[in-house]
Amino acid sequence: MTEGKPTLAVVGATGVVGLSLLSLLPTRDDMWGEIRPIASGRSVGRRVSILGKDVVVRELNPASFDGVDVVVMAVPADVSAQWSPIAVGAGAVVIDNSGHFTAQPDVPLVVPEINPDAARQPPAGIIASPSAATLMMVGALHSLHSSWQLTSVVATTFQAVTDAGVSGALRLYDETMELAGNQSVGQSPGDVRRMLSDLGESPFPAPVAFNVIPWVGQEADDGSTDSEETVREELRSLLRVAHLPVAVTCVQVPVVRTHSVSVHATFATDTDRNDAVRVLTESSNSVVVLDDSAASLDDAWPTPVDVVGADPIFAGRVRRLEGFPNAIELFICADNLRKGSALNALQIAELTI
To answer: N or C: which end of the chain has fewer CB within 10 A?
Structure first.
């Protein structure tokens, strides 16, 4: 602890989530003493900007956590699995962004707008931050659930390539450069794959440029992916409805940054579109409603390119369709590297102290 203030360590400080977290610090309250950037050996010696100062990145090892009060793990699941217990053993509280600990009963899953008390004194010393796909919709669903009681959720996510980290963004850029300028591309079966065959291994199971991929993550049970299972279980946990029917399809799209989701939410009683907009607007859920039918199309609903880099979650296309009196449709966008990852983790870190 430095000058009476706690020390925050960011493991994975040179990755897309870690850098996003560091960039958020000037917008938050001044509550940290030392902020310690940590990364794997290949990043040691690099400098990152922290509150206007260049700070040298430390190597990840047991000594990294000496004197640290809170650790944010902005790393893959296998890295967090290895190093989170070591950080806890050194006396730190760990906020895990990888999803590795989500299913463990002694690890609370926290969204500060929904269950802030769960961040205080976690039994195992570890707190889980939900996936970006969950975070972009759970605030809106929680607000609506409080008014009408959810009975089912059907959601299709449209996930940006930075979900796969730096390699995802670089792959999209490389594929786009390879295909750009060819006005015949994408008009015959297999032509995109052939043009990209020399680019080497991809983090995605199919071309992502000029394409959408209805598969994010690894194969799981019942034909789902582990990403889809994660969203289902995280929504049930945070909404406190253990057996809520949730159908999720996660889709990879050629967007660099900012996830979107189309949601069909069914409730126990009749709903009203205007009441839904009011509830979403008035609740403390980090949701900004952009849904003005009288506005121009540019301002009528959110899109990723319009909300990227923003902290709130943006909801639009709020409507109740004929034949579905108990359901609300909405379209949501949220920056997957801010509230979808770094900001939620940082907010949890603040709650712990």
So the answer is: N
